[in-house]
Amino acid sequence: MRRMLLALAITTVCTAIGVSAQSPDAGERFGIGTFQLEGRTFTGLALRDEVVIDLAAAASAANVQVPTDMLEIIAQYDTGVGDRLKGIVRTVASQLGANRPAYVHDLEAVDTLKPFTPVGVLQARSNYLEHFLEMGGGARDAEVDQDARQETRTQVLSDPPDSIPGYWERAADDRRQNPYLFSVQPTAYVGDGDPIEVATGREWTDFECEMAAVIGSPARRVSIDQASDYIFGYMIVNDVSDRGPGGGGWLMGKNSPHPSGPWITPKEFIDPLNVPVTFTLSGRVMQNSTSAWAIHNAYDLTHFASNILELHPGHVIAIGTPSGVGTAREPPIYMQPGDTAVCTYEGLGTLTNPVVAEAAR
């Protein structure tokens, strides 16, 4: 019963702040990414987690004009490019089989690179309540008993902070903490299969499996209920974090290699308010949750970020990680050379990355 009431409360909050789940009939889901085959790099459409369509070759065969630069696709998707991509997907989906087009490749046969280098990166701090609690001495395992901790939830949110004038105005009944965003260097982003390097002398490399919104239109002071209009799509980010001592601050702690991708799924195929997430480390489940538990969702954070700066196509906003991170466990569990990190969001794909010692330069 408590879980039902909590789910109802989350739905009530979402309704109160003007957001709703998206469930359009947009055709077959696909992702847009960057791939490599026999030394050639190309923009492609990932379909059914099984095949990749070479976009330039498919567009030529269909005699349609589409950009193949990722930033151009992101910026032009809502002005006709998206419809053309969906037309290509419909055509290819009807031809999958023994005589499929030569520009369709098995996903396993290509290398999946990072989708693109973001224009800018903003990431949310402690944006899942369970993670907020575990970092302060709360939960110590991924298997969090949501029912038993409902009272703790109420206590944590019973004394909300003041508004942030000009940036985050609180409704009278909004009892959440204020949003908190920090910057990460875009060059920290790597792709599926790329190594997560444990820096020399550092033994505290942690994982944070996150969902990220990719901005598709220039956005300045957009409202929460209109924020979805400015989002192009969603992808996965593993916010690899150095938790060790040394006083290096956020630059040191948050700029290790961050796996991203494996591609970007356009927003019409995803309900960002309820996406199941699982993270495993060398086969052990460490995080098992859903984006529904985020304190501030993708729409909230787009609104907040756009009040601080003008967002541009290609900006990335990662909405934070659920509970289960390594540093919060007893004893802590950090990624070690030889581990394999696997981050999955339903409908967004899977990032699989080996953990290695930092290479000699």
Keywords:
single chain; 361 residues; alpha+beta; Fumarylacetoacetate hydrolase, domain 2; 7-stranded mixed sheet; 5-stranded antiparallel sheet; 8 helices; 20% helix; 27% strand; disordered N terminus
General description of the model:
20% of the residues lie in helices and 27% in strands. It is an alpha+beta fold and 361 residues long. The termini are far apart. 42% of the residues are buried. The longest helix has 15 residues. The protein has two domains: 83 residues, no CATH class; 238 residues, Fumarylacetoacetate hydrolase, domain 2 (Alpha-Beta Complex), CATH 3.90.850.10.
Annotation, overall tally of beta strands: 19
**What's the CATH C level of the largest domain?**
Alpha Beta
Question: Beta-strand percentage?
Answer: 25-35%
Average pLDDT number: 86
CATH-wise, what's the superfamily of the largest domain?
Answer: Fumarylacetoacetase-like, C-terminal domain
Helix content: 10-25%
Unreliable spans: 1-24, 137-144, 148-155
* Overall domain count: 2
Q: What are the secondary-structure elements, in order, as H or E?
A: HEEEHHHEEEHHEEEEEEEHEEEHEEE
Number of contiguous helices: 8
List the helices and strands and how they pair.
Elements: H1 2-16, E1 30-37, E2 40-47, E3 51-54, H2 55-62, H3 70-76, H4 81-93, E4 104-106, E5 111-112, E6 120-124, H5 129-135, H6 150-156, E7 181-184, E8 189-190, E9 196-198, E10 205-206, E11 209-215, E12 231-238, E13 241-242, H7 249-253, E14 258-266, E15 276-281, E16 284-290, H8 298-308, E17 315-318, E18 340-345, E19 349-357
Parallel strand pairs: 6-17, 8-14, 9-19
Antiparallel strand pairs: 1-2, 1-5, 2-3, 3-4, 6-7, 10-13, 11-12, 11-17, 12-14, 15-16, 15-18, 18-19
